[in-house]
């Protein structure tokens, strides 16, 4: 039985060391960046979002060390910058937490938090969330998972923030490097009640549900073969991650990426070293 209160990938969280520098870097790559947000005090974090439809990317930085952000800080110390966790959309976080509890897992949360949002007309509102996390140790391929219920979608999916010079439209796949793709895909499959599927090159795909982006577990070597000519320096053998983004116009993508662009087959890529520890691969859509 698939989880009733959790649907597909909502957003990818890229942990960064210097939040403002990371935002400027992604701005230079042709992304429209939201105004900086500061989360509730117990979270101790700030963020910038890169909004697509129906998903998004989040650049997340630790502003004040708290108990809540200890795993994120440990990730940066171990791996450096990069995708630290992936969020699913929660229809109801409280009910979703009880669903995984019924499967023998102890959820973290639900936790309520918010951040101020400056709207395009200059007024201040708030983005409000309720999240729960799978246990910290349950991190298939070294990437944690959680679920996010958006209480105020209108203050997150703002139309002006969803248009990007690089023509990015949505996330197609989240690729996670691991020495044991089948084992980690099976692990995620158990956590979200989805069936893994082996690919021809040895990678294993797990659908996230709701026609959202898929998870793909593969070795670093397999990732390199998918994107020949793209330097993977900085990606960990376990937990190094990439995002495949659908572009509405690859010519616009290449122009916006400028010197950061690396053509690889039918994709236009940004190496991890130029995207805060995350390989970005743009494909036609």
TrEMBL record:
Gene3D superfamilies: 2,3-Dihydroxybiphenyl 1,2-Dioxygenase, domain 1 (3.10.180.10). InterPro entries: Glyas_Bleomycin-R_OHBP_Dase, Glyoxalase-like_dom, VOC_core. Pfam families: Glyoxalase_3. SUPFAM superfamilies: Glyoxalase/Bleomycin resistance protein/Dihydroxybiphenyl dioxygenase. Residues 8-150 form the VOC domain. This is Glyoxalase-like protein.
